[in-house]
Give the backbone structure.
Amino acid sequence: MADLLAEFYRDRWLNPTHVRSRTLATIEQLTAEVVGRKQERVPVLHLRNLPPLILNRSNAQRLVEAMGTPDYHQYPGRRVALYVAEEDWNGTPRRVVRLEATEVPPRTEPAAEPTPEPEPEPEADAEGWEDA
């Protein structure tokens, strides 16, 4: 028998009930969508085989740190770990989904400048004169 709640009242967004333990997820894309009562435009992380995750500022910052770049066009195909944390929200404990890196992000430090090679000595011709 089908689950009445699961069939007719599907969750549109990822929430703590979808994440039972640390869960690895592959990023498909990041989009901007208008959501909520205030109809605000927010970043939404689309993950393979999971509902999309609305990124609040904390998770957006965690995602950028995890990916090692703010360029979200580089995120598809990369993986993140999802977990549930309990955080205080206006004095009330609340379960939230958080994300973290599953791999070391690429280094963003500037590359060291190459050491200049010494200039070669000018060659002398057969008579001892240097080429000009």
